[in-house]
Each structure stands twice: as C-alpha cells, then as structure tokens.
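Re: the 234-residue chain
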Amino acid sequence: MIRTCVWSAALVAAGSPAFANLVITEVHSTGSSGEAYGADWFEVTNKGASAVNITGWKMDDGSFNFSNAVNLRNITSIPAGSSVIFIESGSTGDNDIINRDNFIAAWFGSAVPAGLIVANYGGSGVGLSSGGDGVALYDASGNLQARVSFGAGTAGVTFDNSLGTDSIVSTPLSVLSSVGVNGAFQSVADYSSSSPGVKEIGSPGVIPEPTTLALLGLGALTLGRRRRGGISSF
C-alpha cells in the first residue's frame, strides 16, 4: 500500500498552501556513466494535497523547449505526497522495464521499499549532461509546470533538492546528496567495476514529510525525510 503525507487542513483552509504541487526533488546526471544500470534519472514529488494527473506530460532537458520535449511514460498520475523516479530509456520504450529493474536492483537489491514508484522517459535529443543541464516538465498543452537546472555533476552522486518548495527553480542546483542527510543512502551495487566498493549516493524513493505543521501565524513549516517503504508496476 502506498503511504502518503497528510498536509495540515488548517493551512489549506487558511488559503496558505505549504508548497507548489510538483517539485523536482532529485537529479542524477551521472547515472548513465555507472555500469549497474547506465541511465540518468530525476525524481518528482507531489507536495500538494491531491493527486496530479500527468497524462500527456513531457520533459525536456536544458534547452527548456517544449518542441524538443519527449513523453513521460508508464504513469498517468502522481499521488499526493508521493515521489516518482523517472529513468531515461530509449525512444520506443522497449528497454523501459529492464532499465527499471536494473535501477531497482542497483539501488536496493532485494530490499525494495514498499510503494516505490518508477517510471520512464526517453526520446531523441534528450539526455542529462554530466557537464551541466536541466530538467523541465510540461503538461499536455505545453505549459511549463516544473523546472530545475544544475551544473557539472559528481560521478555517482545525485543533486539533492528534497527540501525545495518551488516548482520553478531559477538558481542552479548545487547541493549534492550526502549519506545520512535528508534520507540519502548508498546504493547496493558499485558505481563502477573500476572502483570496487564505491557506491552511488542519493535518496531515490525517499520523500519529504512535514515534521512540524505550523498553523497560521505560528511559525514556519519544517520538513523531514522518510523512506518509502513491492513497487508500482507499469
């Protein structure tokens, strides 16, 4: 069963939403350089109070141009309080399942968190450059819904935007995942056979959760992170 975060009804009633609905909370631009699954990926978290229908949605990389965007595949809705990991695959989707399975095995081995949601994207001309790039999400009508950019990546380490609250992020991501911080952990598999024992570091499937829900006028909302923990199949 997928567990979701419950947001304060008082905040909603007061007309002061805690977050924009969708936030790109993690990006791995050096995943394709690793040998375990060989694919880049990003994570999207729905921080709103209701599910978001993403039927027909697309993503583009740092060109931020809807005409270049490619389809998000194998998912039509992101539940409230849930995160989805989108893994890059080929244009046709023929390797979607194997990329998903290899990703899960590399990060989790046999200890797969319950409720983990993994989907795909892919198409010509879209790839996350390890030298710096971006991710943009568009709805079916071409309206920009979420965007981040980032600089040069570090091999085997993701960019951490788990505590981000904005759908459109103007400042390039720079914070790298660190074990024990915001739920980040080491992968089960090695990142590269040339560096035995060196693991990937990130927090795929770990979603933001409010630890303190402030009522109107009683201070700020703060966030923690928790492990989600079956996977959602295609």
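The chain has one domain: 9-232.
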